[in-house]
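Listing S7. Sequence submitted for prediction.
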Amino acid sequence: MKQVVIVRHAKAVPYGYENDFERDLTDRGETDAGRIGRELKNRDVQADVIISSPAKRALKTARIFAENLGFEKNRIQEIPDIYEGLTTAEFLQLIHQLPESAETAFFFGHNPGFHYFVTNLLKNFTGDMPTCSTVVIRFEVDSWQKVEARKGEMVFQLVPRMFN
């Protein structure tokens, strides 16, 4: 069994788009990321691989999750294409390249792409992906090479409003 955890970055400051890459998390975003990270730890979700967009808000969200999950922050992989935008087919190629020793891989990035990935990886998803939304998707396969679109089962979704 392989699991993909897709996380939209936490709430970011609204600079506008002229300096979008450097947008930081708000205090609420940092709090939300900590809450969701702790909840994942409570549910025994462990990270074998963490891959993030290099944009400040996504990377900071990934680092907060890593801290809560006991994952070494210096092992977080940054992939610029996640920020620049990937098709679902390109995202699947990224999944297919994961080390077979890993069982659970986390991805941190942005909408609308991450909403599309969740929608396209699951058999059925009609939900939303607000900031810090975290979707755990299970694939009943023994190799990352066998992960396919529309074959995933949602284990659960966490969103910050669940903890207010």
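Caption to Listing S7: primary sequence and predicted structure tokens for the chain studied. The domain at 2-163 is CATH 3.40.50.1240 (Rossmann fold). Strands lie at 2-8, 49-52, 77-78, 104-109, 134-139, 153-158.
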